[in-house]
Design goal:
- It is a multi-pass membrane protein.
- Strands 1-2 form a two-stranded antiparallel sheet.
- It has helices spanning about 5-10, 30-55, 65-85, 100-110, 110-115, 120-145, 150-155, 160-170, 180, 185-200, 215, 220-235, 245-250, 280-305, 315-335, 345-355, 360-375, 375-380, 385-405, 415-445, 455-465, 465-480, 485-490, 490-495, 505-510; strands at about 95, 340.
- It has 25 helices and two strands.
């Protein structure tokens, strides 16, 4: 038997991911695009409901307050998504609420001056205004780093080897949002996981009018089936005598959103009152804004690959971060209760549907704005049990993580240097945040516990983020370990041409601003 040829046992590196039906600037039919946009909206609901459900009761808020916060978060998320896809990176990314802001927000909630307020509603409003003030001040970090192109300068130190752990941990770092939540209601979560994988992968060749319906709309179909199944279990009294936690994760009538939601309500700036400002709160929030920036950088790189685009040039990435800073400023003005970041689950959906079209994401932004105003209808979809979303996250986060690993094709993984950097960065990126989580769960405060609250928030926020830890470790090692003699091993010959807008002719097709705005903001 003849020895196999090299091309038979290896695959050539590819700038753009193959196998997608629609890339960033190609569009499905309007009917299909609207259905796909609605699917992205449904997926974005998970985080938009989970964050207020967790935080509002801690602030003394009622179900009515929770509904208003969910509506506001969706409304501003829709606006930010439109701004990002039109004027930011122009990648097909949904902008939504971020978990990275939890440490400084909980720190504000437990501020003694706010905890002393006895009236729950007054305490809720006062806490909300304090969070708004901190977000408004902290947004300046991304606005300055983005529009001054400082982040573009920082990105010159990135290489494929350094970015693999960062992009991968954008997905892997969210593992506690996956099966641990599915496990809270396995009779709903596991059927959802199996059904979604079956439709999107094993039955993906089933077509209607030449459209792979089951692959393209696996999320909508499986959510509808399992939601109906969950409603049947709820109506039949299956959870009547179960613990409160089980009921909250399994029942379809525990969200209390539909009854509390108004028919029509338009969120507006300063709807909770004038923001209040405190230097300590703002400094703590700045750490979360920095973490959001790093996580979004990894997410944009993943989105570019799943949209079959080239990696965003440095100035485009910086422009996107600037607009994301504007988004966090809007979060502070409207009172969304948390800051913004790129929705990782929606990036995964680009790969699952094999549709990376920008138009689809803009349509989903329209749904976010529309259903946030029509409260009752939005609340109906928002009452989907969290376990169903967690089952989808198991697939979506894993898909985004694997996109990060795909950047290894441009590097030499027979190099001990590269193996060391990637392995250590990935391990520490998972291990250090896990230590911080376990410590916080046991001691009810983070490992950083000094008299300076803002300093505690800064350290605890940074080291609770897997992509941030991975970036610190990988970029440091990559730029200090034999970096002068290892440019080819690091993948720099391939990476270098995407650093500048004119380095690759395809950049103009993917990242040029609309309405001929490049005349006023010429790319570098």
């Amino acid at each position: 038997m003849a020895a196999p040829k090299p091309e038979e046992i290896s695959h050539p590196p590819m700038d753009q991911l193959q196998g997608l039906e629609y890339c960033i600037d190609s569009n499905p039919s309007w009917g299909e695009a609207i259905a796909l946009g609605f699917q992205h909206y449904i997926l974005a609901l998970g985080t938009a409901v989970m964050i207020p459900t967790f935080l509002v009761p801690l602030m003394g808020g009622t179900d009515d307050d929770k509904v208003r916060v969910v509506q506001t978060l969706l409304f501003v998320g829709g606006v930010n998504t439109l701004l990002q896809t039109l004027f930011g990176t122009r990648l097909p990314t949904v902008i939504g609420g971020s978990w990275a802001f939890m440490v400084p927000i909980i720190s504000i909630i437990h501020d003694p001056s706010l905890e002393r307020i006895t009236d729950p509603h007054v305490r809720f409003l006062s806490t909300m205004r304090a969070i708004q003030g901190a977000l408004i001040v902290a947004s300046s970090v991304q606005i300055i780093l983005g529009y001054s192109q400082l982040w573009a300068i920082c990105s010159r130190f990135f290489s494929p080897v350094g970015m693999v752990p960062v992009i991968s941990l954008v997905g892997f770092g969210l593992l506690d949002r996956g099966f641990p939540v599915v496990g809270r209601c396995v009779e709903i979560g596991i059927p959802m996981l199996i059904l979604f994988i079956a439709f999107s992968q094993y039955l993906k060749h089933f077509q209607t009018k030449e459209i792979p319906v089951l692959e393209r709309f696996a999320l909508l179909i499986s959510v509808t089936v399992i939601w109906a199944y969950a409603h049947l279990l709820t109506a039949s009294g299956a959870y009547k005598h179960h613990p409160e936690l089980t009921q909250r994760n399994c029942r379809t009538d525990k969200a209390n959103l539909i009854s509390s939601a108004p028919w029509i309500k338009i969120p507006y700036p300063l709807q909770w009152g004038a923001p209040t400002f405190d230097a300590g709160h703002a400094f703590g929030m700045m750490a979360a804004v920095l973490v959001s920036l790093i996580e979004s950088t990894g997410a944009y790189k993943a989105a570019s690959r799943l949209a079959s685009a080239t990696p965003p040039p440095a100035h485009v990435l910086s422009r996107g971060i600037g607009w994301q800073g504007i988004g966090i400023l809007l979060d502070g003005m409207f009172g969304t209760l948390t800051g913004s970041t790129v929705s990782v689950e929606n990036i995964g959906l680009l790969g699952s549907t094999r549709v990376g079209s920008r138009r689809v994401i803009q349509i989903s932004a329209g749904f976010m704005i529309f259903f946030s105003i029509l409260g009752k209808f939005g609340a109906l979809f928002a009452s989907i049990p969290f376990t169903i979303f967690a089952a989808i996250y198991c697939v979506m986060f894993g898909l985004v993580a694997s996109v990060g690993l795909s950047f290894l094709q441009f590097t030499n993984m027979n190099s001990m240097r590269n193996l060391f950097i990637v392995g250590v960065s990935l391990f520490l990126g998972l291990s250090i945040p896990e230590y911080f989580r376990e410590y916080t769960g046991a001691a009810l405060h983070g490992p950083a516990h000094t008299k300076a609250g803002w300093f505690n928030d800064l350290l605890n926020t940074i080291f609770l983020s897997s992509p941030t830890v991975a970036l610190i470790v990988s970029v440091f090692l990559d730029n200090t370990l034999e970096y002068k003699d290892s440019a080819k091993d690091r993948g720099m010959p391939w990476w270098a041409k995407f650093r500048t807008f004119k380095g690759d002719s395809r950049n103009e097709e993917f990242y040029t601003l609309p309405f001929n705005l490049n005349r006023f903001f010429p790319p570098s």
